[in-house]
From TrEMBL:
Name of this chain's protein: 4-hydroxythreonine-4-phosphate dehydrogenase
Cofactor descriptive note: Binds 1 divalent metal cation per subunit. Can use ions such as Zn(2+), Mg(2+) or Co(2+).
Superkingdom as given in the UniProt entry: Bacteria
Pathway assigned in UniProt: Cofactor biosynthesis; pyridoxine 5'-phosphate biosynthesis; pyridoxine 5'-phosphate from D-erythrose 4-phosphate: step 4/5
Coarse class of the protein's main subcellular location: cytoplasm
HAMAP family associated with the record: PdxA (MF_00536)
List of residues binding a divalent metal cation: 162, 207, 262
Role description: Catalyzes the NAD(P)-dependent oxidation of 4-(phosphooxy)-L-threonine (HTP) into 2-amino-3-oxo-4-(phosphooxy)butyric acid which spontaneously decarboxylates to form 3-amino-2-oxopropyl phosphate (AHAP).
UniProt source species: Formivibrio citricus
Assigned keywords, A-Z: Cobalt, Cytoplasm, Magnesium, Metal-binding, NAD, NADP, Oxidoreductase, Pyridoxine biosynthesis, Zinc
GO biological process entries: pyridoxal phosphate biosynthetic process; pyridoxine biosynthetic process
Localization: Cytoplasm
Matching PANTHER family: 4-HYDROXYTHREONINE-4-PHOSPHATE DEHYDROGENASE
Length: 326
């Protein structure tokens, strides 16, 4: 039987003033079971990556090189640590090219280095740019996706993402929670290989509402949704008080956690895994992983950026892509 070809991963190098372009320099020290295509300005990548990158060829479809560069030119030269709104369109062009390549089957997955939401919104205020997750959903024609961060054996998905806290309760409806749990269940099964995913579901309020004395969202929305989906065969536990959910005894009962809002679930995961965590977008027709940190403008150009999260994101993308191809 012929050897299965390695998956091809598109790696967007992100905000040019941040650490993304130089993290590429550390790729030469690791052999991945995939071919990496770095999307970005050729001169910027080679400048930040140093002499090792001089051997990386330009990307052509079908190239056999372990690492290659798909050149997308900067609008203006970039300086480490100095944001420039004139390069905001360049950042979006990287995402557009990688997404289009994944949808067309040219790439098997995409991995994204960090971007700076503020500079994109300053450049394009009419777009209301919320982040990678929402932008990629729109590019893929999907009206609902789920953000999940992972590190080690811990996986935390979110029922809501980048919302002000006061808007969270109204955003958690029976319909939205049902759809989110179905996406999470489906991708844990189909992309991650869990035959019957076990999902731990947090309550919204302290003590999961304490029988209605601290809020009724658990009684009126969350519990009925879980009961309905259990009848369909899903393995769901909850709603659980968030302050005791993230304990070893509880976590060993599940394959993933669904938190109700951003700062309910992610501080725990980042405390446990920061520097090694991964952001995965569920519900897309493509595979997308990302680092769990920002642009680190203060570290850009210093050579002190930690590549651990990017390494983990590439490793997981290669694993998921290989499973999909098998």
């Amino acid at each position: 039987m012929p050897e299965r070809p390695w998956p091809v991963l598109a790696l967007t190098t992100g905000e040019p003033a941040g650490v993304g372009p130089e993290l590429a320099s550390l790729l030469v020290h690791t052999a991945y079971p995939a071919r990496l295509v770095l999307l970005g300005d050729r001169d910027l990548i080679r400048q930040r990556a140093g002499h090792a990158a001089e051997a990386w060829p330009d990307y052509r479809p079908g190239t056999e090189a372990p690492v290659s560069i798909l050149h997308i030119p900067l609008t203006v030269p970039a300086c480490p640590g100095q944001l420039d709104t004139r390069n905001a369109g360049y950042v979006l062009a990287l995402l557009d090219r990688a997404t289009e390549g994944c949808l067309a089957g040219e790439f098997d997955a995409m991995v994204t280095a960090p971007i700076h939401k503020g500079v994109i919104n300053d450049a394009f205020p009419e777009r209301h740019f919320y982040g990678h997750t929402e932008y990629l959903a729109d590019k893929c024609g999907v009206d609902l996706v789920v953000m999940m961060l992972a590190g080690g054996t811990l996986r935390v998905a979110l029922a809501t993402t980048h919302l002000p806290l006061k808007e969270v309760p109204a955003a958690i409806t029976s319909e939205s929670l049902t759809r989110i749990l179905r996406i999470l269940h489906t991708d844990l099964r189909d992309k991650f290989g869990f035959a019957t995913p076990r999902i731990l579901v947090a309550g919204l309020n302290p003590h999961a509402g304490e029988g209605g004395h601290m809020g009724r969202e658990e009684i009126d929305v969350i519990a009925p949704v879980l009961e309905h989906l259990r009848a369909e065969g899903m393995h769901l536990v909850g709603p659980l008080p968030a302050d005791t959910l993230f304990t070893p005894r509880q976590l060993e009962q599940g394959d993933a956690v669904l938190a109700m809002y951003h700062d309910q679930g992610l501080p725990v995961l980042k405390y446990a895994t920061f520097g090694q965590g991964i952001n995965i977008t569920l519900g897309l027709p493509i595979i997308r992983t990302s680092v769990d940190h920002g642009t680190a403008l203060d570290l850009a150009g210093t050579g002190r950026a930690d590549p651990g999260s990017l390494h983990a994101a590439i490793t997981l993308a290669a694993e998921l892509a290989a499973r999909k191809k098998s």
